[in-house]
Design brief:
The protein is of the alpha+beta class and about 120 residues long. The protein has a single domain (about 10-115), classed as Nonspecific Lipid-transfer Protein, Chain A (2-Layer Sandwich), CATH 3.30.1050. It has five helices and five strands; from the N terminus they run ααββββααβα. Strands 3-2-1-4-5 form a five-stranded mixed beta sheet. A hairpin with a 2-residue loop joins strand 2 (about 45-50) and strand 3. The termini are far apart. About 25% of the residues are buried.
Length: about 120
């Protein structure tokens, strides 16, 4: 097997993890909310974010029992991450799908919104 080349969605979420673990508001939202958010990305590595004890970590692969799964093409996932594409609009336009807990997906979106404002 050659080198595993991670794409821009994974790289972007690595930055998301770094920012979230340093941001007091994001940590406040994540504290007491232990969850796994799975990403199935067409055109990039599948990965999941594990939120535990107010901290978040990124893991490559597929978790056996995520709380919520976001599935979509690499370009859509990247544009949502950068804020170029509104996640709610993209969802209703069926540009990506959410499986599992919608309330967890919405709370995850709030963590992202806090980080976007902090940039």
């Amino acid at each position: 097997m050659g080198d595993v080349k991670m794409g821009r969605v994974v790289d972007g979420y690595k930055m998301f993890v770094e920012l979230a673990n340093k941001n007091a508001k994001a940590k406040g939202l994540m504290t007491g909310w232990d969850r796994v958010v799975q990403f199935i990305v067409d055109g990039d590595d599948n990965f999941y974010l594990k939120i535990e004890g107010g901290q978040v970590s990124l893991n490559i692969g597929v978790h056996e029992s995520p709380n919520v799964t976001l599935k979509g093409p690499e370009e859509v996932m990247f544009k949502m991450l950068t804020g170029e594409l509104d996640a709610t609009r993209a969802y209703f336009a069926k540009q990506y799908t959410i499986e599992g807990s919608m309330s967890d997906a919405m709370k995850f979106g709030r963590v992202g919104a806090v980080l976007a404002k902090a940039r």
